[in-house]
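Record Large ribosomal subunit protein uL23, 99 aa.
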Amino acid sequence: MSIEQIKLASVLYAPIVSEKSSNAADQNNQFVFKVKKSATKLQIKNAVELMFGVEVAAVRVLNVKGKIKRFGRTLGKRSDWKKAYVKLQPGHNIELATA
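=>
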């Protein structure tokens, strides 16, 4: 593996498995990933294509703001993070259970 491929492999943290993401996968062939905060759409596209061997049609990203939570007397804040919705080309699929 080249250094560029190692950098791309560190862009994706984990797939997000929820009811909403399962519906997106079934209906629109979209998969949801938690990604590095500094990742760009092109990096996310290249990382998904490298890791899963599929062709990506589109990438949509959104920044999720961390919530303010109370820990006993003090207030704390959860970390901000980035979410990516990756739409695949027709005919391509990712099996998250086996990946």
